[in-house]
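ugh ok so i messed up the first submission bc i forgot one of the chains. this is the corrected input, ALL of the components this time, i swear. 1020 residues overall. if the numbers dont match what u have on ur side tell me asap before i send this to the collaborators (the ones from the other lab, u know who)
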Amino acid sequence: MKTLISLFFLILLMFSVSAQSDSGDILIDNGTILTVTNGVLRGSDILIRDGKIHKIAKNIKPGNARVIDAGGLYVLPGIIDAHSHIAIDAVNEASNPVTAEVWVGDALDPYDISIYRALAGGVTISHAMHGSANAIGGQCETIKHRWGVTDPDDLRMDGAPRTIKFALGENPIRVHGEGKDVVPNTRMGVEQVFRHSFSKAREYMIGWEKFRNGHSKTAPQYSLRLETLADILKGDIIIHCHSYRADEILMLMNVLKDYGVNKICFQHVNEGFKVAPELAAFGAHASVFSDWWAYKFEVYYSTAYNAAILTRNGVVTSINSDSGELIRHLYHEAAKAQKYGGLTDEQTLALITLNPAIQLGIDDRVGSIEEGKDADIAIFKNHPLSIYAINQYTIVDGEIRFNIHEDEEDQRIDINPEETIPAFYEATEAHDHEAEGCMQGVYEFLFEHKH
Amino acid sequence: MTYCILLLQVSLFAQIDYDIVKEPSKVLFINDVIIITESQDSSIRDILVRDGLIVKIADEIEAPFDAKVIEADSTYAYPSFIDMLSYTGLVKEERKENRDRLKFPGYPPNELAGITPERLVDEKLDIKSSSIKSMREAGFGISHTVPKGRMLPGQGSLISLSGKKNCIISNRVSMYMQLSGARGMYPSTLIGVMAKWRDLYRQAGQLKTQHEKFNEGGNGFPRPQRDKSLEALFNVVANQQNVYTKAEKVKDIFRVLELQDELGYNLVLSNVKQGWQSINKIKAQNASVALSLALPKSEKKDDKKESPKGDKRKKNEEKTERNKDDLEKEKKEDPETIAFKERKAKAIAEYEKQAAVFEEAGIHFGFSMLDTKPGDVKKNLNRMISSGLTRETALKALTIYPAEILGIDHIAGSISEGKMANFFLTDKPYFDKESNIRHIIIEGVHEKIKVKKKSKSKVEEGKYEELQGTWSYVVDIPEDRRTGEIIVNITGDEIEINLIDNQEPDEVEEATDIEIKENQLAFTIMVNEGNELPIRISLEFEGEDFSGTVSAEGIGSFPIDGKKIETPE
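and heres the new structure output, hopefully the right one now
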């Protein structure tokens, strides 16, 4: 009898496991839906089919769908982080001020536990970025948090536009000017790095055009770096630029005007509030922290009203994490911006859903709860902008990737067979913006060459 | 146990004994040997070897008058193993990292950035390298040796492990690549290396076309630039040379597969340790595979050398069963630690199962010895076999499969007429734990192997009880100070001594030639750093303390002392 009972539970267990991952229909029943684009729908259902939001209505019949009882819960679009460095094994190729050819999409790490932690915070998509060591850093990758996949390729959000990291100010100056005594040594030098690079890329494009037209027997030597820069000039790549100071933000917009480039999202952009009308006029976007600053000199002049001022000036604004910790409570970060700036719920939620989607060029597929969009959804107990908010489920492409009721002690999927102590006890680096965020992996370049 | 200082001196003063490797007798006759084919069939045959080749295999051959005859009755002949990738035979060099400040670390010269695809292993080969000997003694006949370095260290060669000069069978058999960046210069990271590889590959293709156009002549194409790195990649671009890429862990495997898919060259995934998740992609992209013969350290006792420490633990466990309080205590062991141990054991089991999973998927793989100790080969193979790998495939993966992947299956990989005379004779079937290799024949060069003495020696019963237990020791070598434990075990009239050096706590060294008299004990420990060096340890005991000397022939003696730290009950 005993074995019979345990067998029964085993089968039940297997069933629940397979039910979770078999991509079948899911019905989110009777929730309060925060659509972001279409107001709040109370007591409504969402039917998920083939990884998409199939239907939003009241009283949808479940049929074969797995039902999630969302009575009393809040259903919101999966949170999107426009600036993070999780799930990548390399962040900075800090050896040169221009490394447009490198691509963090080559270094995706589907085993990074930060993905699961982000899911626990309702985040379904993050923008895995190259660091800020170089004026023109590497290309970034927009990833879906499909925790459980083993092939790095399966993390990519297929079809998401290409993006690239630029950086202004202290970081590239420190790494290259101070660290290696090469240009840029000043903010002026950073500008010249951009101008020089774009000019080179233009020459390269002309050289290849001549070759293809038969005007020249030989083409310029193939260069992935110049190819990439040329793609920026062609408008195929969105620039995401690490920035703090208003003067530099204006500088980069002027450079881009000169080269006919208009797709840009400024990252951090702590002094964005000073140039909000100019950003809006250019059509530039801004991705900010709610209240994180003063970790270096150029980040002192900051305000918690930044997101609200930018939003009210018509700049598409998002709030990002740039951290494997902050990413777990972006909804809380957004709520802080609301507290200071008095934005509406919908404006505030857009800071972490629709707006980052626009900034990454994926708003046609995600960022709000609409029929036909990807079924990237988080289901919260208590309103997500409340201090009491707790995420219950995170669904990515119609698959439940986080379920608070099935949250195990150890959720890692790759165990090092040679590790000697449980990972729980592993010493973690001090929480430091520079060490774990934008400047990962550049210390070698800062210190090794100084003797 | 590694006595670095001792070894340094050995290589300076002592002559390594290569007499054992005789000049090839032109003719070799192996009588009545049980030949094991790569598919594990066996038959009793005679083998005639001439000029390094197997000229005849038959039931009853008459030994030629000039033949050296090996009476091989009831021994087993196996084709020598083929190592798919290692540094076998390379001279040991100190790694010279560039410490000078580069003017433009973003644009380093290729040599400094670890990009030397033009380099061959020739100049770095040392025929007397101890690695050749230890590989040979582990059953290998041919190594695919690649240069050391970073991103593109150079091209691989096939090396015959007979110990003779003229050991290079062929050069330029492969391009070796790793995802390792240069230190402090471009490309310094994984992402830098992958981008640089795309650059180099496409530039090589472009330059190749330019060379071809120019060589056609008369078409107005200017003479292209010369570039030794890019030109060295021409064969890769033309799909005439395989790119062996080190890809041990799952993420690197997928990354390397992605690069191949994108650029379209011939790939051999090398030293694969965690490849089971990527099998579908490997098959879809038709990549060849060299699995690593290394395994993570086993937690199971059977797989370890029976260490006296382990015995003690076992005894303790038995005791616990009797003692309820202890049992309670054990129950209270940190649940996270328990969970950790379980997950770790599971992870180890997956690594052990890898070869079986590849076999099941129908992938023909070989084994690479890049970071496997030759002495661990059989032990690791048996762990894989316990996890489901068939012996047949294990043998094929050491012989005919790598021969096929390396393109030498017409000259090596099996005991067949016309092929190179590369095989070894064992006293029991190879995979038997007790089996020993007794004769090695590589390209007709015959070497007889002495079987090591049993480590247990006899003592007068009941007389030396007080020596039993664990003793700590300190050896004072100039500029080095080594510590560890000596464990003395006496059961009945048998004495066993083991030594554990604190610098390598997982290696238990068994003592041989144990002599015991009154309060004096002497024994020999073999130190193995490539070549074996006997170290004689003579101790004089006084109560709970001892002192004495550690001596190595031709090097000198150093003082040792220590005291008892544990007595068995």
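quick check: Chain A touches chain B through 54 residues (CB under 8 Å). that seems consistent at least. Confidence is low (pLDDT under 50) at residues 1-23, 427-431, 447-451 of chain A.
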